[in-house]
Every structure is written in structure tokens, then in C-alpha cells.
């Protein structure tokens, strides 16, 4: 166990566990800190707005790292994110921050989100479906199976006829 910060997680923090494989020569502490920074307030370049505000209340913190048993150069980096970083009720905003750009980060050879714990106070900000799952199932006349959606690819370039055919095949 590598303790990185004297940081005690709060009940209101979003907690993420990332499996991290640093590039050769990159210490695990640096890799964990890079994940926390890049997935919250950090960026790969200097921006002129950096000095306009303190980012302490928004930044993710890698608070400890465990080596993965039986795996060379793999670690679980535990990152705490303050709720102030996220827009209430927006799954998109939360996931864009936590798993957006960070997967292409050069300090890492590999990265995988292993676990995510979302505090109850944050989940209560999500409204859910406007009518509930039963109303949606009744409208679609689909029961006893998951309801799935998809994006037709390519998004552009299909004729109306071919796009309609692709949608039909997807929904069939």
C-alpha cells in the first residue's frame, strides 16, 4: 500500500478505483496523481485561466495505491472527487470528467476503471425517466428483456431509405 496524501475521503466524495499500468520509468505515485489530475482539473498544457481561481475544491485526489497481486507494474489507484466538480443530475458530465480524456494519457501504458462509488446525496439529483420504466415498456410493448438503444453508423451519408433500413434492422 502506498499512501499518497493525508486525505480522508468524505461521504460526499465520488470514489473511483483505476487499474493503472504506468509507462516504464513512471513511478506509480506519479501515474495515480496524473489520473486524478487529468480526470478533474488538470490539463496537458498551461492555460491562461489557471491563475484566476483556486482549484483545490474541485481537484481529484489520488489518496492511495495498491499493487495488483501477481501482476508486474499494475496498481489500483484510488481517486476521490469532490461533488463540486460535477453538475447535479448529469451522468454525462460525471462520466466525461472521470473517464473522458484520461485513457489516452501518455504517462500510462494502460488504464481501466475498476470500480465507481457514487454517494447517495449525488444519486438523488438524478431524476430518472420522466414516466418510469413500466410506461416505457407499455409504449413499446416490450417486456421481460432489457431496453437497449444504439447509434446508427455511419451517422452521416446514408440515404433516407438505407438509414431507415438500418434503423429497422436495429429495432427488429
Automatic annotation (TrEMBL):
Name of the protein this chain belongs to: Ribulose bisphosphate carboxylase large chain
Gene: rbcL
GO BP: photorespiration; reductive pentose-phosphate cycle
Family matches, as InterPro entries: RuBisCO, RuBisCO_lsu_C, RuBisCO_lsu_C_sf, RuBisCO_lsu_fd_N, RuBisCO_lsu_N_sf
Sequence ranges assigned to domain Ribulose bisphosphate carboxylase large subunit C-terminal in this UniProt record: 132-172
Known catalytic reactions: D-ribulose 1,5-bisphosphate + O2 = 2-phosphoglycolate + (2R)-3-phosphoglycerate + 2 H(+); 2 (2R)-3-phosphoglycerate + 2 H(+) = D-ribulose 1,5-bisphosphate + CO2 + H2O
Keyword match Oxidoreductase: yes
Ribulose bisphosphate carboxylase large subunit ferrodoxin-like N-terminal domain location: 5-122
Enzyme class: lyase
Amino acid at each position: 500500500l502506498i499512501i499518497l496524501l493525508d486525505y480522508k475521503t468524505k461521504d460526499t466524495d465520488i470514489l473511483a478505483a483505476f487499474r493503472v499500468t504506468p509507462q516504464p520509468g513512471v513511478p506509480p505515485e506519479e501515474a495515480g496523481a496524473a489520473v486524478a489530475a487529468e480526470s478533474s482539473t488538470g490539463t496537458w498544457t498551461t492555460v491562461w485561466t489557471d491563475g484566476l481561481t483556486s482549484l483545490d475544491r474541485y481537484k481529484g485526489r489520488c489518496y492511495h495505491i495498491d499493487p495488483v497481486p501477481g501482476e508486474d507494474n499494475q496498481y489500483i489507484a484510488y481517486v476521490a472527487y469532490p461533488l463540486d466538480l460535477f453538475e447535479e443530475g448529469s451522468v454525462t458530465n460525471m462520466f466525461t470528467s472521470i473517464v473522458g480524456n484520461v485513457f489516452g494519457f501518455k504517462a500510462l501504458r494502460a488504464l481501466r476503471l475498476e470500480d465507481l462509488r457514487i454517494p447517495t446525496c449525488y444519486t438523488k439529483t438524478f431524476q430518472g425517466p420522466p414516466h418510469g420504466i413500466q410506461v416505457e415498456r407499455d409504449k413499446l410493448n416490450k417486456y421481460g428483456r432489457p431496453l437497449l438503444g444504439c447509434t446508427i453508423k455511419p451517422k452521416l451519408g446514408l440515404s433516407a431509405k438505407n438509414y431507415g433500413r438500418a434503423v429497422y434492422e436495429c429495432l427488429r
